[in-house]
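Human: Respectfully, please carefully check these tokens:
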Amino acid sequence: MKICIVAEGSYPYVVGGVSTWTHQLIRSFPEHEFVIVSILAERSQRGKFQYELPGNVWEVHEVYLNDADWRSRKHGRIRLDKKEYQALRSLVLNREVEWEVIFRLFQEKISSVNDILMGADFLKIITEYYQSYYSQLVFTDFLWMMRSIYLPMFFTLQMGLPRADVYHCVCTGYAGVLGSIGKYLHGGRMLVSEHGIYTREREEELIKAKWVQGIFKNIWIEQFRKMSGLAYEKADVVVSLFEHARGLQIEEGCPEEKTRVIPNGIDVGRFEALPGKGEEDAGWVNVGAVVRVAPVKDIMTMIQAFRFAKERNPALRLYVMGPWEEDEDYAKECFELVRVMSVPDIEFTGKVDVREYYGRMDVMLLTSISEGQPLAVMESFAAGKPVVATDVGDCRGLILGESDGFGEAGIVVPVMDVAGISAALLRLADDGAERARMGENGYRRVTSLYRAESMYDAYRALYQELGQSGPEQKQKEGEQAWRELALN
């Protein structure tokens, strides 16, 4: 079976939970052929893999959302027919879209996004949209913002996809658009696995963003909602990690009958017999954070909370374990905050083998503003460590349990609550018995409910279910039938 993994801003270019999940999933199915289609911000990221690709990955295709200086190029005289114009108009005006018409337009007719973005038809549609809803704005600003909004979508719509039995999108968004195109072009089945609810995550980012202001934030949010709606419409199965996330998918318009829950899982055995504390740890209470240094992980709140806890308990020491290359400007701001606040005993380790550190930690910390079902929490449990985490994604369910009887395995705190995070660290730092009890509860929970084997079994069955009617599978079955006839 050939499976096309469609990833956005993650595997194999960015280290993180979703990328690690994708990497392990591919490795777990050596019997299948995989093709990777990865959506990147720009061409400068080309070929910069952060993972060694498994042997069953046959190809990697890249899509760049900002791929050309399209504004400086001489545009063509492309004109849309009536059906094409109405489909594009519906797309921009947030009406019901004939997506097959849009797919044919960009796959067969438009050779350059410049032709459409700088053409008369797009201008006419944008002018209508402006006059109907946004006439209080400066038109030239509105026009260029709309072109910048549709540029990445149009690049995506032009992408040709390889033939596959299953198009497995690791989120909705632009990945969902590509998966829908693959299904349209080649007749494969489409599977979406959401680790976080894409539209909600993009909305949170846009609310805080400085690069887009005012009402344009709402237009961007609506754009992401359109793409997720397309993915939910075209997907055959939509997977979430926990029940609350499934409910959010349904609220966002996903048909309930398409939804399924498959929790994350980890290889618990990888975290057995970890090296423990050494002489260098004597007298210290070690706090660990397995995170990449990025805004979504809210490292600045982590630093501030640790500083307040450190003032009350000088034995505290913080290790931030993860890469900082993804957003070097943000990382520099974090390093500068440590310097300005004169916070001692914080070490940014960069990318490391976390198994060399877990055994030395007393408490694990996660201060994210958005998560799905974080593998870092599960790994902490497998290492027998309690977790202080913000109340995002499924952190509450992992730490406090879903009526599973194992008991609390840490402390859940509000997002960006410096005082609450500090108090939680101090509570666990001062009570070794409670740390041990919570660590044991987490260990029992992850070994019972969140094993990788269960997750892979669920996806193996799902791939088999979807792939049986895929084009590559049908072709192989036909070839096999002809071989058998020839032998007979």
The CA atoms of residues 85 and 121 lie 7 Å apart. The longest strand covers residues 33-40. The chain has 19 helices and 13 strands.
